[in-house]
# Entry
Amino acid sequence: MDITVNILLTIATAATPLLIAAIGELVVERSGVLNLGVEGMMIMGAVGGFGAGYLTGSPWIGLLAAIAMGAVFSLLFAVMTLSLATNQVATGLSLTLLGLGLSGMMGTNFVGQPGERLPNLDIPGLTAIPVVGRLLFGQDPIFYISIALTAAVMWFLFKTRTGLTLRSIGDSHASAHALGIHVIRYRYLSVIFGGACAGLAGGHLSLVYTPQWVENMTAGRGWIALALVVFASWRPWRVLAGAYIFGAVWIGQLHAQAFGIPVPSQLLSSLPYLATVVVLVLISRNKRLTMMNTPASLGQPFVPDR
# Structure
């Protein structure tokens, strides 16, 4: 039973950064913007969070720094694509490459240094409940933030007037502009929110998952988060389910190696990425479902009439 609980705990820890990054990107894409720079924003959040936590001795300051780093980095993408109307795909890829290179340079002095870890919650009486106590009441704070964030985004998009406006921009920015909606403002705020979420996801990696700095420690999680948005058909609750499925695959291959299963370690390590490819192929076969939920203006530049 203890082994099962520990595996479930590690799955939740592995799924949390995927969930947060994907939820942020979902809001961005609902506004009609395609930001492929999630990996770059995550790695910048990871190095910013670790560096601030290490220098100040406070993981909470590190967490705030990770969020700020992701938001600032996303602002660069927003200026390029929304104000200067550059190609969103090319700009997002460039953002990822810039983040990977810049984070490596910034984190040079942090390699091998002990990090500050966010403590898990410990609620007397509740955390000690067999099996469910540690799962429900003994997780790290970002785990609870990720669940609350998912619920908040679901409520915002489908239960509020502002969420309806945001979705209308993603479906037809020209029509929204004709109705007097400030398309660029909404998209700026959405991109910054997505960047803050990506930075928070990166901060989780360096402050909770493995409290240390390792170059390229995101290891492709940003790309998996992008795939999760498509996998979920742009629905928050499906992102939640998908994140835990991918988290289980990620942890499953680690435990398979630890148990000595006679399969090449390289194949086991590639399982999360193989699962991503398989899921995308299966989704692409159902074109009706994909077209029905995809924001119609996704990836299209918008230049308001002057």
